[in-house]
# Entry
Amino acid sequence: MSTKTSSTAEYSAAKVLAPDDICVSDYVAVLRQTTEIVSFCWSDDARLFPPETPVRVRWIPARVQPPRRVVAVCLPFVLVEDRKGKREQVDLRMTQLARVDPGFAEQVFRSSKAAKKRKKKRR
# Structure
């Protein structure tokens, strides 16, 4: 018995970017963010960390943000723009970005526009 499977779906994967790999017009998304907490807030044991030593904590954002387009790069800062044209500065020392496929980014933009149109029609 032979089975044939045909799939027209194409898959792509986001690529983690080093700061010097980021180019203008790339579509990027936030993978991880980092914050620093002073170690005396972390624990009361001064033997583990001296009180003045910062402790870095990395986390994955709880809410997924849509991809953004890179407008300008001046390391370690990147200026990104969302689909509405709102610009935001990203500090790469505290944020890890990934390049997403342009086709995927366009689909996200189109689907969010369509969802807003449906929402307006319901009102």
Q: What stands out?
A: Residues 15-32+64-122 form a domain with the SH3 type barrels. fold (CATH 2.30.30).
